[in-house]
């Protein structure tokens, strides 16, 4: 379905272009319109054809022909518009003659394409490809694969590593808890060991004793057939293995929106402690099956556990690998590291290597590990199992997943950048094409879907639980690469892929390639002859720190004239050549961390540009106002505060880095789409009342970031006129904190950074009625104590106190912060009243290793290793980005604790008991501080 999706996007873009570029398409508009209609007609058959590609090479070739026809259509139209724009600038008489010739050539190319489409259409019926909805056939290959994957609880693995704790927790949930019917879910990526763990629990002694005659195991599969499942599950304890979608669960449970009497009659809640345990790759399925139970998310194995599992398979004697040759052990460890903790990959690898213990064989596998993992066991190979997750993706997610193949191995991806790239590529379509405001929101929804399906791993979350950074597992990336190459979606070139004379240019740079990802240095790449004139995306990663000469970048404008995405982030560049301004189809230009100080004036010619991302320029040229399609403008760190006109950019949604002085010189009422604004520089250069009036005119502004320069400061700010503002960040010295009534009335998130306030901010901030998140950071308060009064912060859920070096005490009165769920603070800040925060679920304490009480505190926490403590709280030690130790503890849900059933407590009572457990930590913490132990 990836081809169908990519073609659909391309056809939609082609249709949009015919409308937007009508003035350039005079003379060929009739042919272009007909071509567009023909391509839309072909779309109807692509979904059915995509499903048959695996079975019939002729169908595969047919689909490839359509894809090439669509790509060729895009190329012809884009190049025609480029030439028409070039001729439009020249008013000589001969240009009119050239335009006629240009129209004639394009018309002939379109006619040739239409003849090709007619031939493609004629071949469709011979191949038996039906229209959408006329027929469905299960792939024979998929049927065979599902048969091979069909699980049985009796075929339990003998070598199981690292699942003891998880198994115990699942057993406790199955045999304990309240009387209601519960669905307990195991969630994780393909091959992570969900079925293995489920088998272990199914055959656990306590489970067998608790459900002696009423256990059932059913394999569901992507092709869910309820009748086959129902034959096995009239039991009190049911294990459903491999549930793929919410629709499958509804089908199994007979959930029907048309027949309310049918609701849940297959798995009734009879109040008899019935339990279902299901395994799935999609977290949404788990939450849909039982919203009151917390899904157990499977984790990748640690390095040591990965090695233990490998030894059990490869050396056949578990962890006793010392008596084997050191060279094999070294090769083995390197190969295990490539599996990145995925049990299926480790098991397949170990089984393969156990057949031949020679150094030659192990070295051969080591040097081609991805190929071996892909083909090993044919239908049960690692890539084949992971490919099921790709097949199950809805069509709109497949291009987004393929796009991840552009990023280097183990690369940490900024989600902000990822969203903007997806939008520029055309992968994100809002409900209404004109509704550009929702595209970033839609992109975030796409990302979360891929995360919930365990195709993307979360690296870092924001304070409001949004994903900030992510990465892709190496084997998932390998799957994406394979699929992307099948579609001519992209090519990568890195240091390991030599750009040498021994390798032909044609093999490196196919003329049909649409995207390139460059991992080698710019000089080597620039020296290669390029024959990809229709390249749409060019991204650079992991380059050296050499400064690129001016001429080195000229080839981009000369060779890739219809480029849409150009990302030079991290490339050290002296200056950007003016030829870049000829890339009129460019939508994304990434220049962050390039060292650029100036942009050419020709940047104003990039009329299709949606995103410009650059920082630390000396000055931004006053031509940005010409780029009418600009939506996301990032230009932090300007050195010189010169005038900059931006009020013509009516589509602008994000503006980051404009100075206070530049801002006040524009008419903000024209920026009707601006939702996020970051201002920096000297605040005192603007008149306060006029400034806040200009902000109040922004009717869709949700987020405002104010950053004062070091020599500047903020007076008391009157922000009450900003009715729509919900997020406010202030960084820089504040002479005085505004009164509570001067803050925006709908403020829900506030961050104060480096404000150097002398008076306790809590008496003012605690009166903000809708505040949900408060962050005080980096000397935002210079006093020693803070106090929160009773009824203060009525809705606050997150409180972070970081780098407040002088604050030694925070008093929280009884009844204050009643809804606080997350508390992040420093070890040096003593907090009283924590045991009264009944909704607290997470505490993070940053430990400064220089504090002498670190060791006693750590020893004290180790006393909470008792079973009673673990019934309520999980905890761990981590290291943050600054190298500081963090003690992190999270309270479990009451529904996941045995004690409800064991003690007869209600969930509310159980919650209160759980919070009281954390109180002694802070109490003892106070005493260790006072004694200086």
Output the keywords.
933 residues; 18-stranded mixed β-sheet; five-stranded parallel β-sheet; 31 helices; 29 strands; disordered C terminus
Provide the fold topology.
Blueprint: H1 2-20, H2 29-52, H3 57-88, H4 93-126, H5 140-149, H6 164-175, E1 182-187, H7 194-202, H8 205-210, E2 215-219, H9 226-230, E3 237-241, H10 246-252, E4 275-280, H11 283-289, E5 296-297, H12 303-314, H13 326-338, H14 343-353, H15 359-367, H16 369-375, H17 382-391, H18 398-403, E6 413-414, H19 415-425, H20 439-452, E7 457-461, E8 467-471, H21 474-486, E9 491-493, H22 505-508, E10 515-518, H23 522-526, E11 537-540, H24 554-559, E12 565-567, E13 588-590, E14 611-613, E15 632-634, E16 654-659, H25 660-664, E17 676-681, H26 688-696, E18 703-708, E19 727-731, E20 749-753, H27 762-765, E21 773-777, E22 785-788, E23 798-802, E24 809-812, E25 822-826, E26 830-832, E27 842-847, H28 854-862, H29 867-870, E28 873-879, E29 885-891, H30 899-903, H31 907-931
């Amino acid at each position: 379905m990836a081809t169908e999706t990519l073609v659909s996007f391309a056809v939609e873009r082609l249709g949009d272009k015919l409308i937007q570029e009508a003035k350039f398409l005079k003379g060929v508009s009739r042919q272009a319109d007909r071509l567009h209609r023909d391509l839309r007609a072909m779309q109807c058959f692509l979904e059915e054809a995509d499903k048959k590609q695996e079975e019939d090479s002729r169908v595969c070739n047919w689909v490839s022909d359509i894809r090439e026809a669509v790509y060729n259509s895009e190329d012809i139209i884009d190049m025609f518009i480029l030439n028409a724009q070039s001729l439009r600038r020249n008013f000589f008489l001969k240009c009119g003659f050239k335009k006629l010739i240009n129209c004639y050539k394009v018309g002939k190319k379109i006619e040739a394409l239409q003849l090709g489409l007619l031939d493609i259409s004629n071949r469709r019926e011979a191949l038996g490809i039906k229209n959408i909805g006329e027929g469905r056939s299960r792939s024979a290959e998929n049927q065979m694969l599902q048969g091979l994957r069909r699980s049985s609880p009796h075929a339990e693995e003998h070598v199981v590593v690292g699942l003891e704790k998880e198994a115990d927790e699942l057993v406790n949930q199955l045999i304990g808890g309240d009387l209601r019917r519960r669905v307990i879910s195991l969630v994780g990526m393909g091959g992570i060991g969900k079925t293995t763990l489920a088998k272990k629990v199914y055959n656990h002694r306590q489970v067998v004793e608790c459900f002696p005659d009423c256990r059932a195991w059913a394999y569901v599969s992507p092709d869910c057939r309820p009748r086959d499942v129902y034959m096995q599950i009239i039991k009190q304890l049911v294990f459903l293995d491999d549930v793929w979608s919410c629709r499958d669960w509804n089908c199994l449970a007979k959930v029907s929106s048309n027949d309310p009497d049918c609701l849940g009659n297959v798995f009734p809640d009879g109040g008899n402690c019935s339990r279902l345990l299901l395994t799935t790759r999609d977290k949404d399925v788990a939450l849909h099956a039982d919203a009151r139970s917390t899904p157990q998310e499977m984790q990748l194995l640690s390095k040591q556990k990965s090695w233990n599992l490998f030894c059990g398979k490869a050396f056949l004697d578990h962890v006793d690998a010392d008596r084997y040759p050191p060279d094999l052990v070294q090769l083995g460890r390197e190969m295990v590291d490539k599996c990145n903790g995925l049990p299926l990959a480790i098991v397949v690898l170990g089984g393969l290597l156990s057949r031949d213990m020679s150094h030659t064989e192990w070295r051969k596998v080591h040097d081609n590990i991805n190929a071996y993992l892909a083909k090993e066991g044919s239908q049960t190979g690692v890539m084949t199992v992971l490919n099921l997750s790709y097949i199950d993706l809805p069509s709109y997610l497949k291009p987004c997943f393929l796009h991840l193949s552009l990023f280097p191995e183990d690369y940490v991806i900024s989600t902000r950048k990822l969203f903007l790239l997806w939008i520029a590529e055309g992968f994100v379509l809002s409900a209404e094409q004109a509704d550009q405001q929702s595209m970033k929101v839609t992109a975030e929804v796409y990302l979360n879907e891929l995360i919930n399906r365990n195709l993307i791993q979360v690296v870092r979350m924001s304070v409001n639980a949004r994903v900030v950074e992510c990465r892709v597992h190496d084997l998932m990336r390998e799957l994406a690469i394979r699929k992307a190459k099948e579609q001519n979606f992209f090519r990568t070139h890195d240091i390991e892929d030599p750009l040498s004379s021994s390798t032909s240019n044609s093999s490196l740079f196919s003329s049909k390639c649409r995207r390139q990802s460059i991992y080698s240095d710019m000089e080597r790449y620039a020296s290669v002859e390029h024959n990809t004139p229709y390249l749409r995306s060019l991204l650079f990663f992991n380059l050296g720190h050499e400064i690129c000469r001016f001429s080195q970048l000229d080839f981009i404008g000369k060779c890739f004239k219809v480029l849409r995405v150009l990302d030079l982030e991290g490339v050290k560049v002296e200056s950007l050549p003016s030829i870049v301004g000829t890339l009129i189809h460019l939508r994304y230009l990434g220049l962050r961390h390039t060292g650029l100080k100036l942009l050419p004036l020709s940047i104003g010619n990039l009329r299709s540009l949606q995103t410009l991302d650059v920082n630390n320029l000396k000055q931004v040229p006053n031509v940005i106002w010409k780029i009418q399609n600009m939506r996301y403008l990032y230009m932090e760190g300007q050195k010189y505060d010169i005038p900059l006109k931006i009020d013509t950019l009516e589509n602008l949604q994000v503006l980051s880095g404009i100075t206070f002085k530049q801002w006040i010189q524009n008419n903000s009422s024209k920026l009707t789409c601006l939702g996020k604004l970051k201002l920096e520089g000297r605040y005192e250069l603007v008149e306060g009342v006029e400034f806040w009036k200009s902000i109040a005119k922004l009717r869709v502004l949700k987020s405002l970031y104010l950053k004062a320069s070091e020599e500047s400061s903020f007076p008391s700010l009157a922000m009450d006129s900003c009715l729509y503002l919900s997020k406010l960040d202030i960084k820089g010295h504040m002479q005085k904190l505004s009164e509570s009534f001067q803050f925006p009335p709908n403020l829900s998130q506030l961050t104060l950074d480096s404000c150097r306030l002398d008076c306790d901010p809590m008496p003012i901030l605690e009166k903000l009625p809708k505040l949900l998140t408060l962050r005080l950071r980096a000397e935002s308060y210079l006093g020693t104590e803070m106090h929160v009064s009773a009824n203060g912060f009525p809705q606050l859920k997150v409180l972070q106190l970081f780098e407040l070096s002088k604050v030694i005490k925070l008093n929280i009165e009884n009844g204050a912060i009643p809804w606080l769920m997350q508390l992040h603070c420093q070890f040096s800040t003593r907090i009283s009243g924590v045991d009264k925060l009944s909704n607290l679920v997470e505490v993070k304490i940053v430990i400064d290793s220089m504090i002498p009480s670190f060791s006693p505190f750590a020893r004290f926490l180790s006393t909470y290793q008792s079973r009673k403590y673990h019934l309520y709280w999980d905890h761990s030690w981590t290291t943050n980005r600054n190298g500081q130790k963090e003690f992190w503890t999270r309270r479990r849900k009451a529904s996941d604790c045995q004690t409800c059933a064991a003690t007869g407590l209600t969930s509310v009572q159980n919650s209160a008991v759980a919070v009281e457990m954390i109180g002694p930590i802070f109490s003892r913490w106070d005493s260790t501080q006072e004694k200086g132990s």
